[in-house]
C-alpha cells in the first residue's frame, strides 16, 4: 500500500469511527455501554428489600413483589432489556401521561392549561385539600393532569359519543404508543372500582367546581379502567421512547402524536411525575418521568431514549424504589441528564 492509499484508508476508518461515536452519543451510549448500564443497575438493586406494594387497591397487594424488569428503547428503535420484561403490572398513574397527551392532541395545549393547570400541588396524588387550596387561595385551575383531580378531569375531556367510544379511542391511543394492542387487567379494574370512593368524591368535587362538565362518575369509571391497563417493562419503555422520539413510535414508526405537543407533556411530567418527590427526582436526573402505584416508572431522555422499570415495592411517596434507583443510575451512566452541557 502506498502512502496516499494509507492516508485514504486511515481517513475513512477515522470517519467511520467518528460517525459511530456521534450516533452512540446521540443515543446516550453504544450497545455495550447501554447493556452494561442496564445489567449493573439490575444486579445492584435485585436483592434490596425496602418498600412494599400498594395495598389501598387490594389487588395490587397480591402482585409478586419480586418482579423486576428494565427496558430501554432508543429513538432509532433499539431495545435493551434486563431482568423480567414478561411480567405485566397495571399501568396506574403512568396512564395519566397518555390521557393528557390525548386531550392535547384533540383540543390543543391550551385546553389542559386553562381547564386544569400545569403547576405542581406539592401534595399527595389524591389530595382533596390541593383542590380546595387551588380553588380558594389561588383562584382557579392551578393543579395538573398528573394528580387524581386533574387526571379524572382530563379523562372527562376525551372526546367520544358515549362511554364505549371514549374508552376505545383512549385504549387505541395507548396501544399506538406501546406498538401493540394493550388490554385491561380485569381483577385490578374490579378491585379498584370496589374501593375508589375517594376518587368518586374527587370526581364529584371537580364537577361541583365545574372543571368536569359531563357525568363525573363516568369519568371516574373510565379513569379507573385506564389505570388497570396491563403492561410489561418493554411496553412502557416503547411508550416512553415514543415521547423521546417526538411522538413517533421508534419501533412501528407510527406518528402517534404531533411533535409540537410533546414538550408540553414532558414539562408536566417534569414538575409532577413523581408527585411530591418530583423536584428531588429532577434534581438528581433531569428527566421527565412518571410513576404508578403498580410499580412502574417511565422516564424520557428527549432525542435519545425512553426507559422503564417495573418493581412493585413503593416508598412513602408512592414511587417504586428499585425503579427510581435503577433509572437514575442508568441515565447518569449514559449522560441522560438533558440539563448537562459540555462547556465549549
Ligand atoms: O387513582 C389511584 O389511586 C390509582 N389508580 C393510581 C394512583 C397512582 O398510580 C399514583 N402513583 N404513584
Describe the structure.
The protein has helices at 3-27, 31-45, 58-61, 95-107, 109-115, 129-138, 148-157, 163-178, 186-195, 197-208, 216-227, 233-244, 262-272, 278-285, 321-333, and strands spanning 69-74, 79-83, 89-90, 183-184, 229-231, 289-291, 296-301, 305-310. With 344 residues, the protein is an alpha+beta fold. The strands form two sheets. The protein has a five-stranded antiparallel sheet with strand order 2-1-8-7-6. Strands 3-5-4 form a three-stranded antiparallel sheet. The structure holds 6-diazenyl-5-OXO-L-norleucine (DON). Residues 92-93, 125-126, 148, 192, 199, 227, 291-293, 318 line the site of 6-diazenyl-5-OXO-L-norleucine.
Helices, by number, come to 15
In the sheet with the most strands, the strands line up as 2-1-8-7-6
What is the structural class? Answer: alpha+beta
Our measurement of the CA-to-CA distance between the termini, rounded to an integer number of angstroms, reads: 39 Å
> How confident overall, as mean pLDDT?
92
The counted number of beta strands is 8
Amino acid at each position: 500500500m502506498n502512502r496516499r492509499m494509507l492516508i485514504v484508508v486511515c481517513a475513512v476508518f477515522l470517519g467511520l469511527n467518528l460517525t459511530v461515536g456521534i450516533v452512540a452519543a446521540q443515543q446516550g451510549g453504544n450497545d455495550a455501554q447501554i447493556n452494561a448500564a442496564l445489567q449493573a443497575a439490575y444486579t445492584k438493586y435485585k436483592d434490596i428489600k425496602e418498600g412494599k406494594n400498594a395495598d389501598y387497591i387490594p389487588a395490587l397487594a397480591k402482585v409478586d413483589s419480586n418482579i423486576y424488569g428494565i427496558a430501554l428503547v432508543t429513538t432509532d428503535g433499539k431495545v435493551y432489556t434486563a431482568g423480567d420484561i414478561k411480567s405485566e403490572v397495571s399501568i396506574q398513574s403512568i396512564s395519566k401521561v397518555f390521557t393528557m397527551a390525548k386531550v392535547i392532541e384533540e383540543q390543543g395545549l391550551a385546553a389542559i392549561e386553562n381547564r386544569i393547570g400545569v403547576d405542581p400541588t406539592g401534595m399527595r396524588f389524591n389530595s382533596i385539600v390541593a383542590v380546595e387550596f387551588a380553588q380558594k387561595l389561588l383562584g382557579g385551575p392551578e393543579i395538573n393532569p398528573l394528580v387524581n383531580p386533574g387526571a379524572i378531569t382530563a379523562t372527562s375531556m376525551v372526546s367520544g359519543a358515549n362511554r364505549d367510544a371514549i374508552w376505545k379511542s383512549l385504549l387505541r391511543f395507548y396501544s399506538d404508543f406501546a406498538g401493540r394492542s394493550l388490554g385491561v387487567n380485569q381483577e385490578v379494574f374490579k378491585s379498584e372500582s370496589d374501593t375508589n370512593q375517594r376518587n368518586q368524591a374527587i370526581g364529584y368535587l371537580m364537577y361541583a367546581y365545574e372543571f368536569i362538565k359531563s357525568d363525573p362518575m363516568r369519568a371516574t369509571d373510565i379513569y379507573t379502567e385506564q389505570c388497570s391497563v396491563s403492561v410489561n417493562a418493554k411496553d412502557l419503555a416503547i411508550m416512553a421512547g415514543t415521547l423521546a422520539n417526538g411522538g413517533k413510535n421508534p419501533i412501528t414508526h407510527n406518528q402517534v402524536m404531533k411533535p409540537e405537543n410533546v414538550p408540553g407533556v414532558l414539562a408536566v411530567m417534569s414538575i409532577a411525575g413523581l408527585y411530591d418527590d418530583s423536584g428531588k427526582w429532577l434534581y438528581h436526573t433531569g428527566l421527565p418521568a412518571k410513576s404508578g402505584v403498580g410499580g412502574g416508572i417511565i422516564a424520557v431522555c428527549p432525542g435519545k431514549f425512553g426507559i422503564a422499570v417495573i418493581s412493585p415495592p413503593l416508598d412513602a411517596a408512592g414511587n417504586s424504589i428499585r425503579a427510581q434507583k435503577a433509572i437514575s443510575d442508568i441515565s447518569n451512566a449514559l449522560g441522560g441528564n438533558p440539563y448537562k452541557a459540555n462547556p465549549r
